[in-house]
Amino acid sequence: MSTVVAQSLHVFGLRSHVSNNVFFFDEQIIIFPSGNHCVKYNVDQKWQKFIPGSDKSQGMLALAISPNRRYLAVSETVQDKPVITIYELSAIPCRKRKILNNFDFPVQKFICMAFSPDSKYLLTQTSPPESNLVYWLWEKQKVMAIVRIDTQNNAVFQVSFNPQDNTQICITGNGMFKLLRFAEGTLKQTNFQRGEPQNYLAHTWVSDDKIIAGTDTGRLFLFESGDQRWETSIVVKEPTSETKNLGVIQESESLIEFPAVTSPVPSYEQVMMTSSHSQLSLPQVFAIAAYSKGFACSAGPGRVLLFEKMEDKEFYRESREIRIPVDPQSNDPSQSDKQDVLCMCFSPSEETLIASTSKNQLYSITMSLTEISKGEPAHFEYLMYPLHSASITGLDTCIRKPLIATCSVDRSVRIWNYESNSLELFKEYQEEAYTISLHPSGHYIVVGFADKLRIMNLLIDDIRSFKEYSVRGCKECSFSNGGHLFAAVNGNVIHISTTSLENISNLKGHTGKIRSVAWNTDDSKLISCGTDGAVYEWSLSTGKRETECVLKSCSYNCVTISPDGKIIFAVGSDQTLKEIADSSVIREMSAFDVTYTAVVISHSGRMMFVGTSVGTIRAMKYPLPLQKEFNEYQAHAGPVTKMSLTFDDQFLLSVAEDGCLFTWKVFDKDGRGIKREREVGFAEEVLVTKTDMEEKAQVMLELKTRVEELKMENEYQLRLKDMNYSEKIKELTDKFLQEMESLKTKNQVLKTEKEKQDVLHRERMDDLLDKQSRELQDLECCNNQKLLLEYEKYQELQLKSQRMQEEYEKQLRDNDETKSQALEELTEFYEAKLQEKTTLLEEAQEDVRQQLREFEETKKQIEEDEDREIQDIKTKYEKKLRDEKESNLRLKGETGIMRKKFSSLQKEIEERTNDIELLKGEQVKLQGVIKSLEKDIMGLKREIQERDETIQDKEKRIYDLKKKNQELEKFKFVLDYKIKELKKQIEPRENEIKVMKEQIQEMEAELERFHKQNTQLELNITELWQKLRATDQEMRRERQKEWDLEALVKRFKTDLHNCAAYIQEPRQLKEKVRALFEKYVQRADMVEIAGLNSDLQQEYARQREHLERNLATLKKKVVKESELHRTDYVRIMQENVSLIKEINELRRELKFTRSQVYDLEAALKLTKKIRPEVSETVSSEDLPSVPPTMRLNVQEETGRIIEMQRLEIQRLRDQIQEQEQVPGFHPLAGMQLPSLSGEADLKAQTK
């Protein structure tokens, strides 16, 4: 074995055409087939563990997991023979438990399988033309029953067990739906098919006797005990803006040819081929999965429907729709959801649904999300990342980043990260991609498409082309190790170009298509190989061939060169690995009946890896061994197309025609080829275009402004809410204060009642204590008398006991005497019997002696007879001995002949002994293996016991959980009802929201009006400012006038003072005054003053008349209101007087009833009566004769009446006070209501 080891780390890919290709191991781990492995993938932690396929396997056909999740059954084809391998999943790592490969019946392949509910039995279905259904007891590799399902070569798509019954089986296929039961070693059909035969593609059990089956025409059937109970057709919805119409599947499917080995016969492709063109437009039900509420089924391309069970009926209705989302990275996004769902599976908790599609994709959805989205269909999400759906044709890695670049026939280019095991970039194109090369920096790729060769930038979120070459159908390209050059193959010509897009040279010389190119370490040479059997070494400095090796009988697939550049390694169709140096093959290593398709050597030159046409990878050390020394690993389910090693020799990458990408951890056990330490870590920089940065900056600014607007809106709404809540809080505080006051009053009332009850209770306690003391005295007297009587009885009984004792002593003496007499009689009787038995014993002994004598005589006779017989036999055997001696002489002659034969046979024996020794060595090894297996068996038995115990515990726990589940279902029913109620409540809330939105719109309109008003007000302010300036100017003018007038007044005063000097001379004074009048008074002023005085008098008179009229009307109103209030007040006073009279009468009745109760109590002698004097108003003769049973609770009744009257009077008083507070209302003087505060007032009123 080789010391070079490869360990599988991660796989990017899925084989969707394996039957039952995805299922849950537990809540976080799923199992699916990829390459030639089954992968255990943890959805949360993102790790993978591998279950490798069988050696020399040609591909998996079907999977099945046991209901207890302990076993996995894998159907494979190994060297054209069917094999079923059963793995134990609970073991770490998973190991093979049983292999079923010896069959007593004809079989080509097993296309579907199923485990029984208890995991002890396995059901397998073979492919046509045999179509046998086999019922296995797989632990013992025993066939329990076998039956041929179909004789017309119709395809069988699915087999299954009843989830509660090991003996009931369901089979569906083209034109068949059969229920079988296992009984008495045979499988017998229990149902009869009625109606038209359908092409049933899938089915599932929804209960113990009910099965849902789907057809290729989009119809669903419910069968109960084999009889059809319900049928529905899946409706193809019209296309909308979000959901596209279900078109013809062949339009969306790319022209991909999957390898024939990887897909079982009936699963998908046969259905698509046999379906007519008219049926292709109908949704085909390829998968059905049941869960607690109902079931999920595929309904055509990219569509899954959820059906739930109706509450009142046993039927199902469509509840939700789930779609595969449109992929924005696809060249035609409308076609990305046109892929059929082939398999579905629910998690154990039914929280997650996983689906696999015909394009090798895995999708998942959380079931809680489907309940949230109402009306619109929910959408799946990728479980991991988008995977290749066809053969991968190109592979490359770089130095500065942990990236892998792949391209595929599915027209996509993908960039993977082998450190984080994730997909970095992905893009689909219109043309198929044949080859890809990744620049050592990890920033650029060269991709060869069917129409052109493109150089592309790897941006942060996109793959963008920046240069195209008109090289059609480039099947091979490669960047140099330094990254400054790249080689591109066009048919039989190699174009060498620089990264500055300048063509250096064209290398011509191959006569056939070039299949592979490789650069040496210093990029000075290029090695190429092709289908013409030529391997050329080119010098880039001259552009000519340096060495060549041509072998026309071999078509080369791949070539590589050693790190020192001296040896070329090439693999091809002649099933050998060639070492070429100096234009000649120096060594050939056989591939042992397989064809090598790819070869790669480590940068240390110590490890070599080759890929084969059967999908395996071989690891070997270099220099190459002479014998068959390599490690072979199961990897892919198709021929390996490309292989590559990372720059640090830690990881091996491989791709194949099955569309899977494997990453391997490689190392050398001898320590050679130790990984090179990285001087610099992986680069983290990425390429971003300037326009993208500007767009993102613009988007960020827009988002920031939007965030600020939203903040303002939220703050405004919060203020509104705060105002609303503050008002509500005020209302609530007022309510609570009122309630607190009412409760305080109630508390006071209750306290008073409690005090009254305490007084009554104390009085009752005193009465009870008195009664108890009396009863105690009476009991003591009675008990003393009883004790005296009992003492007298005791003395009498004591005398009786003495007499009885004397009598019993006499009886005992008599009994003793009778007993002694009976004993003597019994001893005599038994002694006589004993003598009889001794005589009988002596007689028996004599009989025994006689029998011994007879035995000895018979013994002697028998011995004599035996001696005679021995003599007779002796004579017979002596005769036979003579005959044997004669025959012995004859045989001696024959032995001489036989010795010659013996000598010839001895040689053969020696050869056989050598074989035996070899077999013994193998036996010793096998015995060691058997011992180890026995130890394993013992350990497994212990594990089985422990598991049985744990199973019992878990069954108990399951029972408890079922109970809890029932309770939770009840709780769920209640919650559903509450949800319905809440939904009903949501509608008015939504109406309120609409109203509020309308209010907001109105408020926005008001805001606009306010803005307009503000602008108008600003205009008004400017006008007012102008007016203010004008008024200032007028004010200045007025002040000037005022100053002028003051000067005039001063002059007038001086002139008047001068006139006063002529006070004694009238004539001069008159002249002076006239001169003053003429000087200071003008005629116009006089006219104006007179006019002003008349206007003022008229206005004053008019306002005075108006005010007098108003005063007169107000006086009339006051008089009317006072009259109205006076009449109301008189009416209320009259009512009060009548009520006072009624109260006085009730008080009289109360006094009368009290006296009557007092008389009745005296009559019954309950209390000593001291009769008061009868008042003059009520005589004893006038009292009505009331029987004693008229009123038993008179006091309580009168108390209630008085309390009611008191409340009524208080209410009237409050009403009067309110009316007194009314202006213009004057109560009558001298009227005052009597107080009802207590008992003293009652007595005073009655007096």
Which regions have little confidence, pLDDT < 50, spanning 5+ residues? 239-267, 273-280, 1167-1192, 1225-1240
Mean pLDDT: 83
Compute the CA-based radius of gyration. 59 Å
Number of strands: 57
The assigned structural class equals: alpha+beta
GO biological process, one term: axonemal dynein complex assembly
Coiled coil: 693-753, 794-1020, 1097-1163
Subunit structure: May form homodimers. Associates with components of the nexin-dynein regulatory complex (N-DRC) and the CFAP184:CFAP263 complex.
Function: Associates with components of the nexin-dynein regulatory complex (N-DRC), a key regulator of ciliary/flagellar motility, and might act as an inner dynein arm (IDA) hub or linkage.
Task: Note the topology.
Elements (H helix, E strand, L loop, with lengths): L3 E9 L10 E2 L4 E6 L2 E6 L5 E5 L4 E9 L5 E8 L2 E8 L6 E6 L9 E6 L5 E6 L5 E6 L4 E7 L7 E7 L2 E9 L2 E8 L2 E4 L10 E6 L4 E6 L3 E6 L2 E7 L15 H4 L16 H6 L2 H4 L7 E4 L2 E5 L4 E7 L6 E8 L17 E6 L5 E6 L4 E5 H6 L5 E2 L1 E2 L9 E6 L5 E6 L3 E6 L4 E7 L4 E6 L5 E6 L3 E6 L4 E7 L7 E3 L5 E6 L2 E6 L4 E6 L5 E6 L5 E6 L3 E6 L4 E7 L5 E6 L6 E5 L3 E6 L2 E7 L5 E6 L5 E6 L3 E6 L9 E4 L5 E6 L5 E6 L4 E8 L21 H371 L5 H15 L2 H81 L30 H28 L17 H8 L1
Parallel strand pairs: 25-29
Antiparallel strand pairs: 1-57, 2-3, 3-4, 4-5, 6-7, 7-8, 8-9, 10-11, 11-12, 12-13, 14-15, 15-16, 16-17, 18-19, 19-20, 20-21, 22-23, 23-24, 24-25, 26-27, 27-28, 28-30, 31-32, 32-33, 33-34, 35-36, 36-37, 37-38, 39-40, 40-41, 41-42, 43-44, 44-45, 45-46, 47-48, 48-49, 49-50, 51-52, 52-53, 53-54, ...
Helix pairs in contact: 5-6, 7-8
